[in-house]
């Protein structure tokens, strides 16, 4: 806050990279900066570094003595680095730096800034991070049926507190658990479990075993492992003559099938090609959300990436089409995408509810909002007629994330729409998308066969939701 007649020049350059620390081999941010090589370097006393993600952290790097020369002994600009700040997976960090003393009192310092997005737990740089224990754990699980009993084998981790093991039917969302048990903590040992089935299992049904670990960092949100019952062993002797008979019948059937394929190959190939051509179009899904914060936007983007990774889904979201929005304008772009989309998913949050209330009651918040900058408010104006007259309600789906919002955050205008609480309803949500894909004139790609999508959801959404929840606890509305 002291005024200075002479101050140093601004920082010449700032770089931020991810690297492993030398001692513990954990991921850290390597923040490096270069000092401008001019005479003002004699006035330089310190450099302030600020890192922002969940909260803003600043630290001051003091120089022990005044600089006597503009360049170092190698005749290069003075270069410094700080590589001790631990980095979390799948996190965006904003780093700023400025020199002290600063020429601006009660104003913004002349700072340099950089941002970096760290990779997920599946990147080799994150394998030693404590939050990635569950993602990097390989249980090497096997599931077999011997007689009518289900035998499960897996290797435990050194860090999981316990393991829940469940047997259930794969393709049924609300299937009851057929059998289950809890295994206490066991340090990297091989576990064998046998589920004795008193009732004969229907072999025409696909059965799955769910393995839920409980690591200290994720507890109930750890990545679930799932294995399909894929081998059957029965005790007893099959007569040799019967075996040869069965083999002969199979070989004869295979030869007949190959003959038919050779004769009708051209026709079949043509029919298959025509059917595939009709199934190439993906289901177009438009995602609309309120820009509450960068952390909430990160949650929505991870959700969009999760849906985009599913076969047969094409996601439309503003962050991926900034150029088209700039060329067309937000209102025209939204109107066009609404017409082209097969489904419109509206992500509700506390900010979405506040903006709807502001529009309804014409509060100061609504007067201050610039529709060109607030895509959600523009969407409400465009979708209003569809939502009120009910003619296109089947096209709209409302979602909210149970860890960071509630049903109370859903505006009243969406009262007639189908609603999903994620991740509790994630399997039902995907099942309805399957139905939407198959009920659109047969022109859309069939989505991947149904299975427990909660596994994918927990893995993709866990970290961004926990980051936002932590921020909400520190900054309650």
Account of the protein in words:
The protein is an alpha/beta fold. It folds into three domains: 11-126, Interleukin-17 receptor A/B, fibronectin-III-like domain 1 (Immunoglobulin-like, Sandwich), CATH 2.60.40.2160; 135-233, Interleukin-17 receptor A/B, fibronectin-III-like domain 2 (Immunoglobulin-like), CATH 2.60.40.2150; 283-474, 3-Layer(aba) Sandwich (Rossmann fold), CATH 3.40.50.11530. Helices cover 29% and strands 27% of the residues. The chain is built from nine helices and 20 strands. It has a five-stranded parallel sheet with strand order 17-16-18-19-20, with helices on both faces. A four-stranded antiparallel sheet has the order 4-3-6-7, with no helix packed on it. A hairpin with a 3-residue loop joins strand 3 and strand 4.
């Amino acid at each position: 806050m002291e005024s200075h007649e002479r101050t140093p020049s601004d920082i010449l350059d700032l770089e931020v990279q991810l690297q492993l620390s030398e001692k513990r081999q954990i991921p850290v941010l390597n923040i490096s900066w270069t000092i401008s090589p001019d005479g003002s370097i004699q006035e330089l006393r310190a450099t302030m570094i600020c890192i922002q993600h969940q909260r803003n952290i600043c630290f001051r790097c003091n120089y022990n003595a005044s600089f006597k020369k503009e360049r170092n002994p190698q005749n290069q600009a003075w270069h410094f680095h700080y590589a001790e700040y631990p980095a979390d997976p799948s996190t965006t960090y904003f780093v700023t730096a400025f020199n002290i003393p600063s020429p601006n009192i009660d104003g913004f310092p002349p700072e340099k800034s950089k941002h970096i997005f760290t990779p997920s737990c599946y990147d080799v740089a994150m394998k030693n991070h404590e939050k990635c224990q569950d993602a990097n754990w390989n249980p090497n699980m096997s599931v077999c049926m011997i007689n009518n009993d289900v035998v499960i084998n897996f290797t435990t981790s050194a860090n999981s507190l316990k393991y829940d093991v469940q047997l259930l039917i794969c393709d049924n969302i609300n299937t009851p658990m057929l059998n289950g048990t809890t295994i206490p903590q066991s340090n990297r040992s091989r576990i064998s479990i046998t589920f004795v089935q008193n009732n004969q299992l229907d072999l025409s049904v696909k059965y799955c075993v769910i393995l839920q670990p409980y690591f200290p960092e994720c507890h109930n949100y750890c990545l679930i492992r799932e294995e399909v019952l894929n081998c059957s062993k029965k005790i007893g002797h099959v007569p040799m003559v019967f075996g040869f008979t069965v083999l002969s019948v199979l070989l004869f059937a295979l030869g007949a099938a190959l003959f038919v394929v050779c004769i009708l190959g051209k026709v079949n190939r043509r029919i298959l090609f025509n059917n595939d051509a009709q199934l190439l179009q993906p289901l177009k899904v438009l995602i609309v959300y309120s820009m509450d914060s960068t952390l909430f936007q990160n949650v929505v983007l991870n959700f969009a990436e999760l849906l985009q990774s599913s076969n047969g889904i094409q996601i439309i979201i503003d962050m991926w089409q900034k150029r088209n929005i700039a060329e067309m304008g937000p209102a025209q772009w939204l109107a066009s995408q609404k017409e082209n989309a097969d489904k419109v998913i509206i992500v509700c949050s506390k900010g979405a509810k506040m903006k709807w209330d502001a529009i309804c009651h014409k509060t100061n918040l609504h007067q201050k909002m610039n529709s060109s900058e607030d895509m959600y408010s523009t969407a409400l104006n465009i979708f209003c007629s569809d939502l009120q007259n009910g003619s296109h309600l089947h096209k709209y789906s409302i979602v909210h994330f149970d860890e960071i919002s509630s049903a109370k955050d859903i505006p009243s205008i969406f009262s007639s729409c189908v609603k999903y609480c994620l991740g509790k309803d994630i399997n039902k949500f995907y099942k309805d998308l399957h139905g939407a894909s198959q009920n659109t004139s047969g022109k859309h790609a069939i989505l991947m066969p149904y299975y427990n999508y909660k596994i994918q959801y927990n893995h993709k959404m866990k970290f961004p939701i926990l980051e936002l929840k932590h921020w909400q606890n520190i900054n309650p509305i």
